[in-house]
Design a protein that fits this description.
- By secondary structure, the chain is α+β, with helices and mostly antiparallel strands.
- It has one domain (about 5-60): 2-Layer Sandwich (Herpes Virus-1), CATH 3.30.40.
- Helices cover about 35% and strands about 10% of the residues.
- It is built from two helices and three strands, in the order E-E-H-E-H.
- Strands 2-1-3 form a three-stranded antiparallel β-sheet.
- A hairpin with a 5-residue loop joins strand 1 and strand 2 (about 25-30).
- The radius of gyration is 13 Å and the shape is elongated.
- This is U-box domain-containing protein.
Length: about 70
């Protein structure tokens, strides 16, 4: 089982390109972009987001990749 932090709350799949939204949560880029195209709220809390800027989560992306590589070598 992948760690919960690796799972996008929108897609419920392991993230490939995680980004951090204004709510501090990481999401798969394409999923949160689709969400923000029609909404200005957090998918998790429903609260209004202060902005729609998405910051790449390089550390999480690297950690997910390392976990996937380690599992592939088993």
């Amino acid at each position: 089982e992948p760690p919960a932090d690796f799972i996008c709350p929108i897609t419920t799949e392991i993230m490939v390109e995680p980004v951090v939204a204004a709510d501090g949560q990481s999401y798969e880029r394409t999923a949160i972009e689709r969400w923000l195209a029609t909404k200005s709220t957090s998918p998790l809390t429903g609260g209004e987001l202060e902005h729609s800027i998405l910051i790449p989560n390089h550390n999480l992306r690297r950690t997910i990749r390392e976990w996937q590589e380690a599992r592939a070598s088993l």
